[in-house]
Design a protein that fits this description.
Length: 134
Amino acid sequence: MEAIHSSGAPSAIAPYSQAIRHQGLLYTCGQIALDPASGKLVTGGIEAQTHQAMKNLAAVVKAGGSRMSQVIKTTVFLADMADYPKVNAIYLEYFPQAPRPARSAVAVAGLPLGALIEIDCIAACEPADQTYQY
């Protein structure tokens, strides 16, 4: 197992790794809409928070030696299921082509720091000798 860290995503706010790479797969922690530079939750509602969470997720995926097109499964946690249609529209911007990852989406009673959304994923990792432009 190898712990992965990206400076392009917020540092962990509790005792966990941003991601773990193991046997060709990358398992990310949940990403909320923290701005990596300030460490503060972005403002602007569900749309802004979804974009930031996806950007954070993409940074961790890249640091782990994968890319968004290699994401196999995502889990989306929402503070309010009424936001689901807005999240879906933004989600398509980050996964524009089929096949899209398998996905679970659930409403939860609360998320860290009062976030409206949290997203994690499992991605396939390319062999170490492969290089890609992101």
